[in-house]
Amino acid sequence: MTSGTLLRRTGAHAPWSPTAWRDTAFAVSGVPLHLALPALLVLPWWVWLPFDPFLITFYLAVQAGAALWLLPALTRAHRERCWAMLGLDVPAPPDRPGGFRGLARALRSDDLWREVRYHLVTGPLLACGALAVLGCWAVGAALATLALYAWALPDASALSLNTHAVRAGLLNAFGVLLLLAAPWAAAAVRDLDRRAVERLLGPDRAKELERRVEDLAEKRAEVVDAADLERRRIERDLHDGTQQRLVSLALNLGLARETLTDVPDPAMKVIVEAHEEVKEALTELRHLIRGLHPPVLEDRGLDAALSGIAARVPLPVRLRVRVPERASSTVEAVAYFVVSEALTNVVKHARATGVDVTVVRDGHTLRVTVADDGVGGADPAGGSGLAGLARRVRSVDGVFRIVSPAGGPTTLTVELPCAL
Fold it and tell me: What percent of the chain clears pLDDT 70, i.e. is strictly above it?
C-alpha cells in the first residue's frame, strides 16, 4: 500500500469525514430492522395465557406466521437501505408462490432459510456492533469534551479537574481515542452488513452460477445446432443446384466430345479439356458436399455413412457400429467427421496396414474408437488436423483422448453425449 493510498484511507476514516458519518448512519439505521424479528419471536406473550397446551400452541403458530409474514418486508427494507445509503443493488431472489402449497415449498427453499439466518443470527450481531459504534461516538464525545463541562461537576466527583486532574486527563485522552476508532468500527460493521446482505438476502450464488451455466449450455447448443443446420442448407444448395448444373454441363461436353467429329483439332482439344475439368470439379464438389454433411448420414444413420467412408479408404478397415438408438443429428455429424478425419490422418501419416473403427452407444454416451497399427507419434498440440478435431468434439461437451507413442500403435477415443 502506497503512502498516498494510506493517507486517503486515513482521511476517509477521520471523525469529521462524510464517509464516517455515512457508515455510522448506515449501521445505526439497521438496528431497528435487525431487532424486529428477534423481538417478535422472543417476547413470551403466551405466559399471560391460561396454561392450556392448545392455546399456547395456537399462539406460537400465530407468532411463527407473523414472523413469516414480516420476513419479506424486513428483507426488502434491508435491500432498500443498502441501495439508498451505499448504492449497493442486491437483486431480489425469486418471488415465493402464495397459498399453502407455496408456503410448504418456501419452507423447503434455501432462500428462505438464508433470510432467517440473516435476521435471527447475523442481524442481532450486527445490531450489537452498531450499538457499540454508537457508544464509541457518544462516550468518546463525552470524554473528549470533559474539560468543557468539568467545571460544573462537584469537587467530590471522580471527574473533577480540581481533585482528579490526572484521571480526567487520561479519560479525556481515552475519549479522543474512541472518537478516532469510531469511524473504523463503523466501516467494519458496514462491510460485514454489506457482505451478509449480498450473501444471505440476494440470490444464491451457487444457484445463480448453475443457472448461468445452464443458459450458456443452452445457447451453445443452439449455436451448434444452427451451424449444423447451416451446413445442411449449404449441402442441399450445392447438391440440388450447383452439382446438377455441373452434371448437365459435363453431359453436354461429353455429348459434344462424342458427336462433333468434324471440328478442328484445337477446338476438340478445348472440348476434351473442358470435359475433364468439369468431371474433376464434380468429384471435388462431391467430396465437399460429403464433408459438409453427407445425405446418407441423415437418411440411414452412422452405420451406412461410416461404411461408405471405410469403403473409400485404401486400407483394410474393420468397422463395428452398435447404435441401437440414434443420437442427435449434431452428435452424429461430429462422430462422422471424427472417423473421417481420423482415417484421413491414418492414410496420410500413419503408414498403417489396417484400422479398427468401433462406434458403440453406451447409455447416453456415444463412444468412437479408431485404432491403427501405424508408426504413432500423433500429437494434437502440433497444430495438425487433430487439434481442430478436438475443438469440434469439445464444442458438444465431448471428451477427446489420443494415445500415440512413438512406434505406434495409435488409439483415438472420443466420447460424445447423445443429446445436447
Answer: 72
